[in-house]
Please model this.
Amino acid sequence: MNTVTRAHLTETIYTQVGLSRNESADLLETVLQRMSIALETGESVKISGFGTFSVRQKGRRIGRNPKTGVEVPILPRRVLVFRPSHVLKAHVNHATPDADGDGDDE
Amino acid sequence: MTKSELIAELSAANPHLTGRDVELIVATIFNEITVALSRGERVELRGFGAFTVKRRDARTGRNPRTGEAVPVDEKAVPFFKAGKELRERVNRPKVAARAAPARASG
Model:
């Protein structure tokens, strides 16, 4: 399966916006950094038409090493979750993005 | 943070670019990720995370209100997994992180 990387996105910015390759790469990096900084402070990042990145607080629970069966405490932690927008979900299913809300939320 | 706030931050940091350029850059990035995912490709941005598409088999769902069984078709779902660096940044206790970079050991 093909994997799209920073290099591909940089190339797309370069061809579509007409900035230099270097500046295209810098701007892509800045976008990712700004999003990371917001998430780091616990703030959600909402990109309309794409999805929402948010930080969820998880409580302490008892986990188990699946190999040995030994119980290990899993400490409270903060995890990043991404909720794709309906538009993005429709795109990956090759459906019409506006084929009404569909009602399903997960 | 919303997409327009992200655009505003980028514009402020790049006064030599027009607002339209910045908007186009941001749109290009998320559009390219969307296009790659709809082709079934994976998008990997080291340090930030990876976007992939997961397949969900058809199943029999249930209307939670009426209890009535409804067939749910097979579908594709966009999925994001945070990269190591971002995962750690999000989980780092903000105050402690600055004073002592040591990891919490419980």
About this structure: Chain B is about 40% helix and 25% strand. Residues 64 and 70 of chain B are 10 Å apart (CA to CA).
